[in-house]
């Protein structure tokens, strides 16, 4: 069992930046990791994923060039750098980890990001 705890959310003006962190209670070196978000009245959507070693990263079209996912397996932590934020980025951001082929996955509790002037 792995617990994921997100942090770093907050209120930021359009064009601003935030860095989200996802700290795991156990080792994540054998887990793919991802960030998802859910805006009010909308379904949860994928934002970005990163492979176990960090060599493969995928992004939603809406965040490409603005967001960067990274990980530090030694610290059991995944990050999401959010730049050039827009009001439509406002959502609760969730961290997810999963072990490929095992059916095992974990979610964090989410952190709120609000982009508003």
Question: How would you characterize the overall build of this protein?
Answer:
By secondary structure, the chain is mostly beta strands. 0% of the residues lie in helices and 51% in strands. The protein contains no helices and 11 strands. The protein has strands at 4-7, 10-12, 18-24, 32-38, 45-50, 57-59, 67-72, 77-82, 91-99, 104-107, 111-115. Strands 2, 4, 5, 6, 9, 10 and 11 form a 7-stranded mixed sheet that branches. A hairpin with a 6-residue loop joins strand 4 and strand 5. The chain starts with a strand and ends with a strand.
Please give the structural blueprint.
Layout: E1 4-7, E2 10-12, E3 18-24, E4 32-38, E5 45-50, E6 57-59, E7 67-72, E8 77-82, E9 91-99, E10 104-107, E11 111-115
Class from secondary-structure proportions: mainly beta
Question: Kindly state the mean pLDDT as a whole number?
Answer: 97
- Strand content bin: over 45%
Oligomeric state of the chains?
A: single chain
| Backbone shape | globular
Number of strands: 11
Strand count, sense and barrel status of the largest sheet are: 7 strands, mixed
Helical coverage, percent range: under 10%
Low-confidence stretches: none
Order of helices and strands: EEEEEEEEEEE
* Gap from first CA to last CA: 40 Å
Which features does this protein show?
mainly beta, 117 residues, 0% helix, seven-stranded mixed beta sheet, single chain, four-stranded antiparallel beta sheet, globular
């Amino acid at each position: 069992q792995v617990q994921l705890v997100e942090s770093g959310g907050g209120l930021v003006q359009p064009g601003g930046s935030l860095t989200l962190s996802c700290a795991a209670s156990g080792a994540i070196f054998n887990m793919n990791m991802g960030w998802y978000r859910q805006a009010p009245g909308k379904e949860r959507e994928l934002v970005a994923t990163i492979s176990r070693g960090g060599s493969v990263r995928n992004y939603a079209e809406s965040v490409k060039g603005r967001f960067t996912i990274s990980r530090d397996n030694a610290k059991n932590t995944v990050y999401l750098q959010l730049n050039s934020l827009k009001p439509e980025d406002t959502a609760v951001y969730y961290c997810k980890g999963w072990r490929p082929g095992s059916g095992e996955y974990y979610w964090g509790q989410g952190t709120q990001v609000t982009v508003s002037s």
